[in-house]
Structures are given as structure tokens and as C-alpha cells.
Design brief:
The protein has 235 residues and is of the alpha/beta class. Helices cover 37% and strands 18% of the residues. The chain has a 9-stranded mixed β-sheet, with helices on both faces. Helix 1 packs across helix 3 and helix 5 (139-149) runs parallel beside helix 7.
Length: 235
């Protein structure tokens, strides 16, 4: 498949690198360089980053935080990560713009589909922060929503594993990797690609998901060029 515009979903946890929490500057720089590399190939890029390296609303709720407040804290964590990525991209000469799902100028511009598309068409990387702007929705769901809105050809989900497996490869040594798998099979087998809301939105709007290991430098370019190093989830 030829990709013109993509939605790249990055994991907040991956930004920790070898740290216990927060942002590893080396990992951040590696991400920025990989993103710039595919931008220079003419790929239009929208990015959603998780906030799990800073705060998770759901786990906060189990520790006594109000779920809505916890999710709002999680949304702000994604804004912090987005600003960090924006700064890293700017420092290596890659134009970019941060959009926020809730109004918080001058931190970022309030997101709208048309502004984000216009930004990408000019060669800027559009960093779409703040989740959906609503509690009870994950950044996976935000990625699905933004990917559909910006009319992306596919969602690229950069994780710590190199695809979708029959079981968790970190826990089960017999787990085998799928090269391709349908959304229906993901449902039936109960595989944890993304949460159910996000997976359903992608299926209903025919947005394929490419799951790959973003932590290996060079993988983003390889997977964009169609190298068989991840798993494609399709309708």
C-alpha cells in the first residue's frame, strides 16, 4: 500500500526509555529523527502520544482519584509529551505544530480537522494532543478518532513489540506473530491490539492499523516502505 498521510500513535511508556518515569531524551531524539526522515519522503504525518509515562487516569482512579479528574490529568500528560516531541522536532529542523483537544492557548492551537490537514499539507508534522478532550476515552480511541478525521491512509501504532501475537510475547515464549489479521479475528481471539472502542472505530471506518516496534531506530521508515516487520490489522 502507498501511504500519503498517516496517523502515528506513540506510546507514552516508550518515551521513558530506560528511565522509571518521565521522558528519556535519547529516545525522544530517536523518535524525532525517525519522524523527520519519513516527513522528508513526502509523507504527511499526524501524531497522537499517550501519557502513561507521566500519569494514567484509570490507575489513578484505583488510588482514590476521581476518574474524571484522573483522566483530565492524563490528557495534560499527553500535552507535556507533545510539547517535548515538538521541541525535539524543532531542534532538528522539522516544522511542526501542536494542537490541543481543549482550549489552552498559547500552549497549542485548539484542534480542528481542517487546520490539522492544512498544516500537514504544508509539510508540518501535526501533533494532536489532549486525547479526545473527554474523560473515559483512551489515547488509542483518540488516535482512531483523529486518524479518521484527518483522512489518514492508515494508523501506525508504534509499541515496544514488533506486531500482534497469539499471546503476550513478553509472558508466553510460544506466542507467534501474525503478519496480517482482520479486525473480526482480533475480536474473536480477544487480542489486545487497542481498546474495543478504538478497534471498532477503525473497523467501521476502514482505517487499517500497522503495529510495529518503534523503539528500533529505522523501523518507522521500513514499515512505511512496506517491509514486513510488523502486523497489519485490516477489515
Amino acid at each position: 500500500m502507498q501511504y500519503n498521510r498517516i496517523l502515528l500513535k506513540l506510546s507514552g511508556e516508550s518515551l521513558m526509555g530506560s528511565n522509571d518515569y518521565g521522558i528519556d531524551e535519547k529516545r525522544l531524539t530517536e523518535y524525532a529523527e525517525q519522524i523527520k526522515e519519513i516527513s522528508e519522503m513526502g509523507i504527511q504525518i499526524g501524531i497522537v502520544i499517550g501519557g502513561g509515562n507521566i500519569f494514567r487516569g484509570l490507575s489513578g482512579a484505583t488510588k482514590g482519584f476521581d476518574r474524571v479528574k484522573g483522566d483530565q490529568m492524563g490528557m495534560l500528560a499527553t500535552v507535556i509529551n507533545s510539547l517535548a516531541l515538538s521541541s525535539a522536532l524543532t531542534s532538528i529542523g522539522q516544522d511542526n505544530r501542536v494542537y490541543t483537544a481543549i482550549r489552552m492557548e498559547p500552549v497549542g492551537e485548539l484542534y480542528s480537522k481542517w487546520k490539522a490537514i492544512e498544516s500537514m499539507q504544508k509539510g508540518e508534522v501535526a501533533i494532536l494532543s489532549g486525547g479526545t478532550g473527554n474523560p473515559f476515552f483512551t489515547t488509542d480511541t483518540a488516535s482512531a478518532l483523529r486518524g479518521i478525521e484527518i483522512e489518514a491512509d492508515a494508523m501506525f501504532k508504534g509499541t515496544r513489540v514488533d506486531g500482534v501475537y497469539t499471546a503476550d510475547p513478553e509472558k508466553d515464549s510460544t506466542a507467534t506473530k501474525y503478519q496480517t489479521i482482520s479486525f473480526d479475528e482480533v475480536y474473536k481471539k480477544g487480542l489486545k491490539v487497542m481498546d474495543l472502542t478504538a478497534t471498532t472505530m477503525c473497523k467501521e471506518n476502514n482505517l487499517p492499523i500497522v503495529v510495529f516496534n518503534m523503539d528500533i531506530v529505522g523501523n518507522l521508515k521500513k514499515v512505511i516502505l512496506g517491509e514486513n516487520i510488523g502486523t497489519i490489522v485490516h477489515v
